[in-house]
Amino acid sequence: MLDLKITTGTIVDGSGTPRFRGDVGVKNGRVVAIGKVSGEAHETIDATDRIVAPGFIDAHTHYDAQVFWDPTLSPSCYHGVTTVIGGFCGFSIAPMSTEATDYLMRMLARVEGMPLETLRTAVPWNWRSFGEFLSSIDGKIGLNAGFFAGHSAIRRVVMGQRAVGEKSTPDELERMKELLGESLAEGALGFSTTISKTHNDGDGNPVPSRWADYSEILELGRVVSQYEGTGLELLPGNFNPDTIQLMADLSVAGKRPVNWNALLLIGRQDAPRALSYLAVSDHARSRGGEVIALTPATPPDVIVNFKSGANIDANPGIWPELFKWPLHKRIEALRDPEMRERMAADVGTVPDDTLMKFFARLEDFRVESVKAEKNKKYIGGRIGDIAKKEARKPIDVMLDIALDDDLDAGFATNFGGDDYEGYQLRSQLWRDDRTLIGASDAGAHLDQIDTFAYSSTVLQKGVREHRVITLEEAIYQMSDRPARYFGLIDRGLLKPGYHADIVIFDERTIARGPTYYRYDVPGNQFRVYADAVGIDHVLVNGVPILCRGEHTGRLPGVVFRSGRDTRTVLPGAMREDRAVEFTGGASAVAAN
Question: For residue 579, what pLDDT is reported?
Fold first, then answer.
């Protein structure tokens, strides 16, 4: 007898081939039959008028800490995601040492927007090795999850306080290589690092990996080549010739594809920049490597504030220094008219051809959240419009609102591009073999970014509303393709013998709900949240975790170990003859 049977659904199996009507039989956590399935089952799900598809695989999350205070890994579980990969940008929480714990907590609070109080009270920090970290969540997690070992964590454990501000000695580099090797042997899925100038620690200084020279990064990359089922990730920041060469060299040294985050496309004006970034992949391929860009489902609404300074601390001139100062000193400085003039002049130097322009155009920010009663009339308003109406400067409007809230007030960027043309161009990136749909950042930037709902956004905006990608292609890009990139064994397809990671949804209504603040984070903290619409059931390893849109409370996820749950993927393996070449021109794709 089957454990579970899904009947009379429309099956989109993740391969990209056309849909068909049929049933799915599940036993012992795997798909055992598909098509016309006879026989009884302990549990039956009627999928009439619903799509039955493989669960989605989120290629870039930061759920490393959230697993301890929310093992369901919401909101991803509600949006059809059944597998998450974390530990990126060098910011894993293993390996660990007693001396490094406080530093790494404060670093994560600053660079990844995880509330410090939550990290201190809701995460046990009682492991040292990577294997101990994985064992601590075995059997206690709702989704399948794998984690990379992060450069900043490894560097801080080995070098101590010298990890910030110093180059490594030969002995320290050897110990880092040994520690990385131990982590990979214990199940880490790969090695991650960052050189992006937007990544600063709790003291406002560059995170540890940014102090490494390129030879250190390459030496650590070579370690990965010695372990089965492992990969590489690097967040580059700027694409100068040295960085482009580093990415290619890292892939060649590690004998693995390198993925980077994130190739954001706003609109047609952004097409030349996107094309130049895709050329990084061409350069790597010409040298025997592979570089894959993660491309988001939609432009994010990024909410910034003057307390943490995340993202706006990458503005030039005095801006980075401000966020190294104690809060009282910063508040005093932000009241100073001369300081304000200096800040306004500094952001005025940001070129229009870089993404940093969206954090430099103060007049385009929207007032997102305030506590001071007198400023609630500004919520939803554009800083430039308020300034014009009140005959004030944008810098004064923004900082006065921030100071009235002791710098807690939130301001949202205005990226634009949420229209047909934006999605038409974006769909070309989704289907290009130099990219993966990803960059959700789920689990991080809890007070800032709403990109976690990438899967329902692609199906709502890309498939149903704008019709720029077919349902079959979209599901392939979010299931089988990321499964193949990470070398996940028997995942990503609805196919006999594969693990039964399954999502059942209504293609006529699937969507992401509106963004709102949810006050459910330990330590009396909140997070940016959006519910899913039209997703009825989600199964992980054959076990229903979502039933009629409600969580069942069951936690059947597998904590992946490299070499056991993954196989090696070599450079070149992700190239596809069927890929769409991104040109920045019109797309000819029409949805079924």
Answer: 57
- DSSP 8-state code for residue 443: T
Name which of 154, 227, 222 is nearest 194 in CA terms: 154
Residue 515 forms part of a structural domain: no
Task: Quote the CA–CA distance of 142 and 74 in Å, as a whole number.
Answer: 9
CATH classification of the domain holding 250:
3.20.20.140
Span 330-345, average pLDDT: 97
**Mean pLDDT throughout 33-43?**
95
Arithmetic mean of pLDDT over the chain = 94
pTM: 0.90
pLDDT of residue 430: 96
The tens digit of pLDDT for each residue in 446-500 reads 988 889 999 999 999 999 999 999 999 999 999 999 999 999 999 999 999 999 9
At residue 194, φ and ψ (nearest 5 deg) are -145, 145
Q: Are 263 and 310 contained in the same domain? A: no
For residue 319, pLDDT over 60 is answered with yes
Helix (H, G, I), strand (E, B) or coil at 378: helix
Q: How far is CA 455 from CA 64, 78, 116, 368, in A?
A: 20, 10, 29, 25
Kindly state whether residue 523 falls inside one of the protein's structural domains. no
Query: 336 and 204 in one domain?
Result: no
Specify the number of domains making up the chain. 2
CA distance 484 to 412: 36
Do 404 and 430 share a structural domain?
Answer: no
DSSP 147: E
Tens digit of pLDDT for each residue in 546-580? 999 999 999 999 999 999 999 999 999 999 876 56
Q: Do 101 and 154 share a domain, yes or no?
A: yes
Q: Is 61 helix (H, G, I), strand (E, B) or coil?
A: strand
Q: Is 441 domain-assigned?
A: yes
The stretch 18-41 carries a mean pLDDT of 97
CB of 119 closer than 8 Å to CB of 60: no
Q: Which of 565, 570, 574, 569 is nearest to 489 (CA)?
A: 565
Handedness of CA 61, 66, 68, 70 (dihedral sign): negative
- Judgement on whether residues 335 and 212 belong to the same structural domain of the protein: no
Residue type, 456: S
Q: What is the pLDDT of residue 299?
A: 82
419 located within any domain: no
pLDDT in the model for residue 587: 35
Same domain, 346 and 479: no
Domain limits at 365? 303-412
